[in-house]
User: What shape does this take?
Amino acid sequence: MPKQGHFAASHRRAKIKQLKVKRHDSGQIIDPTKLTDFMLVRFALTTKRRLPQNHQETAQRFLQELIPVVRDCHGDVGKALQQLLPQIRTRVPWQFFRQACADWPLLAHFLKRELPAVPLKTRIGVRHLPDEAAFNQLVGRSLAQQAVAVTMLNTKLPVLMREQIAKSVENSVISDGQIHWQRVGQLFAPLPFDTSSAPDETTRRWLEGLKSEN
Assistant: This one.
């Protein structure tokens, strides 16, 4: 399990600033290993500035984590999110997900428009792209599971009972496709997020900024 605070560092920042990438000509193919870099540059050029300034870093880092998983899932965004959310939820404070949920309609539109247009030898179509309510449901369920797992870390309970408790917590924080963020904040208040092990100073400052948002 990654250490708490180890989220993706912005090691692609310089590339995004330096590259002036526009859509490639139809005959020009990019290496599949360059997909994430290509998409992040497209995001910086087309979408990033449409987000609130304090959300831009979060959205960029979220895409940096999500795009490789979507690629491995052959464009199935719903499946990719189910795999990714448990991996990153221990590495960011809960405010990360509040921003991600607020920005998901724009990010989903970006993925739907841009990913199939990337000039790969084998193009990637976007499938099972969650709408806002479905994305909120995925996030709310993941946060509930995390809270229960951390709270009951040393408690020996049957798996079924843990699942029932997690479902009850999930129902308390989300209804009608909307997450009650005040309740989420109360849920995680006894579980302070530690940023001391962040891999670089930029990441630490970003995480601290997220934590400071009430």
